[in-house]
Design a protein that fits this description.
Number of strands: 12
Number of helices: 13
Number of domains: 2
Oligomer: single chain
Largest sheet: 6 strands, antiparallel
Distance between the termini: 85 Å
Length: 416
């Protein structure tokens, strides 16, 4: 037997070498980003070919894992040529702006030693008349819509342009609030519009008493701080934040599309704070991922991030079996109350697994003016993203989803 030992040994050695080489050539382990690409596929498959404009982008931690886009941001009726939406098409993000304003305030407050429970009255222009109970309002009251401000009509109907220009904010402060309304929830854009005045004031702006000049300098102070302390820290370059794309703006449409002229929201330089920023999906996802990924402290510390998410400062939450989701949606429209309103619906959402998604649409469905599509599982853009994430976590089987209306998971199901 001894003469055969050497050849057998040699054969085994050769076989081991071949197997080792084969192992080296096999695909490496799947990275943690790759499974989440299924989430991107679900979003794209359920949005494309529906006849409305959309764009979205998804991050896993600090890495882009996918984008999608479809439809048109401008059509023949406006510019004689249909212009496709891409992930680099500007959209009006509407109330998603509130989260940016909240983050800007928290950064500045941390720099200046200010607490969210401090009163706002000392930072309002000295020449503004302070109405009844304005001295009760704290920064946190504004950030959670519990200031007691109920709008010019005092019926808690959310105001837009007239209540958010300089003179509108000044009049709201002069009118004051009812003591019994302080601490009660009332969603008002003006709560965040006031930060266009407060952030520059905290940062040292001295108001002159000339309303026209003060309004301009306050806006510039707000814009400069947001750019330097939020966008630049997040590594996002975004010019002309408050104006629609030029020379080809993004129009808002109805759905199904009526072939009518689209809605151009225009410029928001005089009213921003609670709404008004324009971003692309690629810019938006990078920004909100920087704000809410626990691995990125370039913009916010973990303490600031927790304060926003846990206390609802310019954000909302949904808790599902998959985990906790944080978000803020945006809604900008023209003609609500008519059969075919036109406009924009948007959302940022930070999901379990440190996944951040930003989704924009430039069409609103006939009737209620919300996210263009709906199903038994979702009614609007926020519950749509929850549905898509749950479908990604339960691929193909849908055992749980057959019994779920994902809209019921939302902390505040109203559109914002």
């Amino acid at each position: 037997m001894k003469p055969y030992l050497s050849p057998i040994f040699s054969f085994c050695l050769l076989l081991a070498t071949v197997l080792a080489c084969k192992k080296d050539k096999d695909p490496g382990p799947v990275t943690e980003e790759e499974p989440a690409k299924k989430f991107v596929e679900i979003l794209d498959d359920s949005l494309k070919g529906k006849g409305f404009g959309y764009s979205f982008a998804v991050y896993k931690k600090d890495q882009l894992i996918g984008t999608g886009a479809g439809g048109f941001h401008a059509r023949k009726v406006e510019i004689r040529e249909d212009k496709p939406v891409t992930p680099d098409t500007k959209m009006q993000i509407a109330s998603m702006t509130k989260t940016i304003t909240s983050a800007a305030f928290l950064r500045l407050a941390n720099e200046k030693g200010i607490k969210t429970t401090d009163k706002i009255i000392d930072y309002l222009p000295k020449t503004w008349v302070k109405g009844p109970n304005i001295d009760l309002i704290t920064f946190k009251d504004l950030l959670t819509h519990t200031s007691g401000i109920t709008g010019m009509s005092e019926n808690c109907r959310n105001g837009a342009f007239t209540e958010n220009v300089w003179y509108g904010l000044k009049l709201l402060v002069e009118n004051g609030i009812r003591k019994e309304n302080h601490g009660s929830s009332c969603y008002q854009n003006a709560n965040f519009g006031l930060f266009r005045v407060l952030i520059p004031a905290i940062n040292g702006l001295k108001f002159s008493g000339n309303d026209e000049n003060d309004a301009l300098f306050a806006f510039r102070g707000y814009e400069e701080y947001v750019q330097k302390s939020i966008f630049e820290k997040a590594g996002v370059t975004a010019e002309a934040l408050f104006s629609n794309g030029f020379p080809e703006p993004t129009f808002g449409y109805d759905y199904p599309y009526s072939e009518e002229y689209g809605f151009d929201p225009g410029d928001f330089s005089s009213t921003t704070g609670g709404y008004g920023i324009y971003l692309t999906a690629n810019q938006g996802v990078k920004l909100y991922a920087a704000l809410f990924s626990p691995e990125n402290n370039a913009v916010l510390t973990q303490g600031m991030r927790d304060e926003i998410v846990n206390n609802g400062l310019g954000s909302y939450s949904a808790v599902m079996p998959e985990g906790k989701f944080s978000y803020h949606d945006g809604w900008w429209y023209s003609g609500l109350g008519i059969p075919n309103p036109k406009g924009f619906r948007s959302v940022w959402m930070h999901c379990p697994e440190d996944i951040t998604v930003v989704l924009f649409t430039n069409a609103l469905r006939n009737g209620d003016g919300l996210f263009p599509i709906r199903s038994d599982f979702y009614q609007d853009i926020t519950s749509y993203v929850l549905w898509a994430f749950s479908k990604y976590k339960d691929p193909g089987r849908g055992k749980r989803m057959r019994q779920v209306d994902f809209h019921e998971y939302l902390e505040d199901p109203e559109p914002h």
